[in-house]
From TrEMBL:
This is SpoIIE family protein phosphatase. InterPro entries: Bact_Sigma-Reg, GAF, GAF-like_dom_sf, HATPase_C_sf, HATPase_dom, PAS, PAS-like_dom_sf, PAS_fold. It comes from Streptomyces luteireticuli. Residues 267-293 are annotated as: Disordered. Keywords: Hydrolase. SMART domains: GAF, PAS, PP2C_SIG. It comes from the Bacteria. Residues 164-194 form the PAS domain.
Amino acid sequence: MGSAVITARATATFEPVGRSVAAARAFVRDTLQGWGFPDIIDDAVVLTSELVTNAVVHAGTSAEVLCVRTDAGVRIEVSDRYPERELPLQSPARQFGGIDREGGRGLMLCTALAARWGVEYGSTHKKVWFRLDLDDRPAGTRSAGPALPAAALPLADARVRVAVIQIDGTGHINAWNDDAEHLFGYTAEQVTGKPLADLAAWPHTPGTSTGIAEALRLSRWEGSYGIRGADGRVIPVYASHLRVRDTVGAPSTVCLLVRDAERAVLQSPPRAGGESGTDRSGSADPFEVFIGSPAPDDLDGLLQRTVERARDMLDGDSAYLLLATDDETELEVRASTGLPSARQRFARVPVEAGTGRYGSARMPSVHDDLNAVPGAVPLLTDTGMRSVVTVPLKVEGRLTGSLGVAAEAPHRYGNEEALRLQFAADRIALAVESARLGELERLRRGSLSFLVEASDLLAGTLDRDQTLALMAQMTVPTLATWCAVYTIADQSSEPELSYVLHEDEDLIDGLKALLVKVAPPDPVPTPGARPWPAPSEAAHKGALRTSLRTVGLAGDIEHSPGPGISLTTAAAVGGETVVLPLVARNRVIGMLTLGKPTDDHFRQEILELAEDLSRRAALALDNARLYSERTAISQSLQRSLLPPGLPDVPGVEVDVIYRAAGEGNEVGGDFYDLFPIRDGAYGFAIGDVCGTGPEAAAVTGLARHALRLLAREGFGGPAVLERLNAAILDEGARSRFLTLLYGELWPQEDGSALLKVVCAGHPLPLRLRQDGTVSTAADPQPLLGVMEDLELYEQTVTLNPGDVLLCVTDGVTERREGTRMLGDDGLADVLTTCTGLTAGAVSARILRAVERFAAEPASDDMAILAMRVPEALDH
């Protein structure tokens, strides 16, 4: 310290606990206040806080703080006792990090704020010291400026007029001097008893968010605004307000005003920073040094630094910062220090919590003792904080957030601290708002992208179970830690737990077991997310039971109802839980439940995104339900059009393969049937209705039922088809062309089978003889549904043992691959390879050949009917 003379010394040791940082700040503040050095207290407290934090929090040792007063200033030393101190390599190029880095920030602050500083290392300790010099000014003066030439002095009128206005406790004017009358044109009689707010054009001071009424209640205020003169013009003034009280204790405010151009008469000069030291930058803004220079979009970093520096600036024990939601009706906790941050983060409070100044976040407020007004600041309930000061963050008059500093001792803060904190908030508000808007823009873009992707995924399926799975998988972990989907079958049904998902797969079973034993949420159609505390309460109670059983203290709890749940599951489920209704077509069809782990909250933006997702998911789920119902009806009707089963024909093997084109179709335009007509006689048919889909299926049903009815009435083949032709034509515009192969089968005693067939426009049946030759078994005749007068005839075919009769629809013969087509010849070639095969093996080989003929799936219905008379050896 050179030749400086030591005039006082103070020292204290602090234990390695977090509370020691606040105690060290208080020790330095009290010491310097007692020595009469108020101008350097803030810098000293900030630097001490950083260095003690490094010692007790990061190094984990006790910290010794030594304050030394000299005739030139103050030197403060902070020493730690790390037992395994490693001496650093000294290098002139050593860097302590940038202002944006957490590591090395204490030394960076020393560089910015201290006149001199240094670090001394020993084998078992490290000492960081800094020196703050006092301004060289005459004793007894608050500040002094250098002598200036006349040309550099500020301009003023020949006579400087200082308006002196006194305002009573209600904001009304009760004193008005001659200079005020000269400046503004009003006599004392004209303005006495009127509110100053009626004359003030507020505000003119850049960056201020304090109104005239609030400024008059502060203990001291200084700035510029306008006064509307008697001629209607606004006169810019610079004002200095001082709050006083008279001998009976009544408060009032004395206002000194000059023309704004003459502000030098009243304006207090900024506190001198002292002479620059070796590494000191005289142009550094102290609050900007506190905050650092985070990237504009680093909102969380900016907010966390703000609360830490605000706490240090007011020597508080905790601090917090809340940001306004888009509609400015609620504030959301975004950063805190000295508080259980996990529990407080993203918690929301209303902007207007009550009537009056202290119930709104839009104005500064000071609470001397929170024990006297329980619940006045809900965020501080059960935290041990007694006194608190809060100020708004405003940009262009619009509320952006709220900044608060709290202490464990009562009566710690007053208007002076509120003013200092408000100035700090005004300086950081624009940066906070800019970063907040940047974050909102990123969230909105991400939300839009998320919703677009979600809509695509939900629209890509009509399966109910897959829709439920997609809903849960899109929310976990993007929106929530866990998700449960409840569905409601109809208005008279209770909600049913349909799907459960947790980001940790090991916890899904425990979560499901818990939710099954909890009554489901009420199906309220009100839009938006609403809290549902039941899972959290059940999780905590279940975890308590498990803990008591573990230590053998359960007693009667062993027989109490309720789930036994692990502490891990309880922690994963025990946070905030919200329910969003799934409303489709004016009916609640389910609920989407989202949950967080213990002490965690949802952000407002996340809840809004979840609400958008729930609307899309509800419509997708309802569409899947309608599709499932209609598919079930369609399939039931289609199955009614198929034969109930193939009868056993004595002495004849029969096999059928049927493939309907189109997803979800069981019946198309192709059909088959085999049924008993009378003793020893069987009817068989295979046909193809023009087209596919429900219309073709309707004609299929007509044809199949008509064939059975007419055949059993004793009509022969030609008569059956002629009457069916008339029935199709009676359908009018709904009629369809129909190709049909109909026949009657009589097994013979000699082991052969006699067939009488009519081929009405259908692909001709093929007969495979035992020697491998293939030939057609009928002649072509006109198709049905075209002409009224048909003259059809039947042909007789005898199947000897080992012969096969193959009947197919054109979906087989017209199978295509580019310009190639299987055709009748191709089918015959395949059939020649089936000699000796059973009827089932023949139909399977035909189908395999058809499928392999082309790579693309079949686009037409297919039916294959194979009948074979077995040889004697087959029996």
